[in-house]
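Risk register update: the risk of archive-format incompatibility is retired. Evidence:
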Amino acid sequence: MAAVDEAASEPVETLIDRAGGAVAWAARQMLGGTYGKRIAVVVGGGNNGADGRVAAARLRAWGAKALEVDPATKAYPPGSDLIIDAAYGTGLNRAYSPPPTSVPVLSVDIPSGVSGLTGELLGEPLSATRTVTFQALKPGLVLHPGALRCGAIEIADLGLDVSQSRAHLVGARDVVGWIPPRSSVAHKWQAAVWVIGGSPGMAGAPTLAASAAARSGAGYVRMSIPGTNAQGPLEAVGYPLGDQRWSDELQDIDRFGAAVLGPGLGRADQTSAEILRALSRLTVPTVVDGDALSAIGTQVSLLRSRNHPTVLTPHDGEYERLMGKKPGADRLEAARQLASKTGCVALLKGPATVVSDPEGNVLVANSGDERLATAGTGDVLAGAIAALLAQGVPALRAAAGAAWLHGAAGSLSPRHGMVASDLLVALPEVLHEANLG
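Archived output:
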């Protein structure tokens, strides 16, 4: 946004006037009118404060008593009906802890004290009831913990050109537009998925992945647990693989549109060696998940030799095993680094899931919440990604689209006691509702 502002063809005063007008109008909506209302406008010294001053002037012209307050204040004017937080914007790099309040708060661009880049809290920011941000979302508005301080977010158009942005938030319309409709003459092999995971006595992870693939549009799902004859869900076809050199048994892989490798396979040395061999034999788009990520470890150069789309799905611990360091606060940059290093699409799990391709294009899905923090939900996500890959969705969109579906399915589930298999029923419901919308 700093670069966008720099490139603007209109003077900064014009942009500030538009921004302040948008803030004033949002305040008017929140208050149900302005005549006789008391509003405290916390104004800093930068452009954020200038926006606040314009808003205060507009509100006074509409009959409100809008008092401008210094960010160093220890208390807000008594009897305030609304606080407008225009203290600091996205460029703040030091702690800011304003006095707490029970009065509704309208934040200008981003709550003061939330990092616009990372969502980190710099001090103890106020929790906004509503945030008016300008022209485009900032990462700090969707990344946690900052996202929890923003309230309802409104994007005000100031007439700036953000067409060169390389990061976008995923919504229902995007996902519906990415998934091709099934042809009236379709057959099951046109979107087939092979799930390879699990171990003797540990069939849960691949079963969840296989079921999720079927529920997300795969026409045929094969499930293999090396060393067993496990059948998996009713809709999947069990296919036995030996307990040794099973990677040599993937001869008909070219019949499939995508594969999932890794959920629940285990971390024995022999298993890890087979996973690495399998990566060279899976000549289809592949989701590399769970124990397959651990098998790769820091040998990420192996992934660059693959000639087919590959999606990596690490949580923070798996990311550290792949990259030799933790993701860091800037999660968009962390995903970009992993994608660039491996030549794969990298999906970094979190409250907001960040997906990057090797060129640095990023998609963010924030449709989920804490309900997904339960065992097996990652296996469901892996299967959903593979199903979208098998339907011909490009890897970046397949990963981000599945992440959005996964989160939205979680949001349809019980707030307490949800288990991963609850997502399986919700996935087609989400797809159906999104198509109706």
